[in-house]
Structure to design on (229 residues):
């Protein structure tokens, strides 16, 4: 089963605009991660946010996490054509006692297209 | 250079044949993972291993098998029991068994003729 569901499925913007992608998940987690994938390539890690964190920044990336709503968002500011890629959230699930399974599951992804 | 190497990059197979995809890492990572990706879709977890000689089924393990005899190697066999094996297969590893970022290989694209 897919843990994360990204929204929107596809996003098309102009260079310089901001891009926001959302991720919802179903179970308890100890962290949530965002990855990027260029077409036909492996994924590259962007940022990790722990379950006790609410917001994290890295360069032009801003991630928020709301564990009460089981959702996260990824904001890319001042987008560039080179940001065109698919973006995925991934979650590290834990059991009811907070013990991790070591199982990292991914959502369906958001396809971002940035037009020059 | 440290990293994860998947081979072959492209593989064609006839129906009814087993095929083994290689995944090797020289990052000294404990945990390794296999994912399947279908066109326009997310990644689905096939198998994962947190330590040598141990592995767990993911969400879509049926028709696949793995071994973890060495820390640096985690081969995936796609058996003839897998009904729809044509897909892009991604291997990944990470330092921590239960947390941390994944490092991915470049993938293997399997096509069944």
């Amino acid at each position: 089963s897919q843990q994360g569901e990204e929204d929107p499925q596809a996003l098309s913007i102009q260079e310089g605009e901001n891009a926001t992608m959302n991720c919802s998940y179903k179970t308890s987690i100890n962290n949530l991660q965002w990855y990027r994938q260029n077409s036909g390539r492996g994924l590259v890690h962007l940022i990790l946010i722990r379950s006790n964190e609410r917001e994290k920044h890295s360069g032009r990336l801003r991630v928020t996490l709301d564990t009460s709503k089981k959702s996260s968002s990824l904001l890319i500011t001042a987008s560039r054509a080179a940001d065109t890629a698919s973006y995925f959230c991934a979650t590290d699930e834990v059991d009811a006692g907070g013990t991790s399974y070591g199982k990292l599951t991914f959502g369906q992804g958001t396809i971002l297209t940035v037009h020059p | 250079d440290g990293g994860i190497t998947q081979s072959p990059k492209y593989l064609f197979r006839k129906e009814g044949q087993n095929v083994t995809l290689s995944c090797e890492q020289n990052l000294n990572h404990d945990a390794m993972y296999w994912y399947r990706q279908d066109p326009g879709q997310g990644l689905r977890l096939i198998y994962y291993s947190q330590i040598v000689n141990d592995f767990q089924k993911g969400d879509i393990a049926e028709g696949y098998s793995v071994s973890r005899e060495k820390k640096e190697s985690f081969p995936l066999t796609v058996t003839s029991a897998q009904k729809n094996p044509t897909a892009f297969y991604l291997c990944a590893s990470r330092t921590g068994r239960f947390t941390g970022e994944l490092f991915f290989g470049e993938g293997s694209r399997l096509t069944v003729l």
Notes: Chain A touches chain B through 29 residues (CB under 8 Å). Chain A has a mean pLDDT of 93.
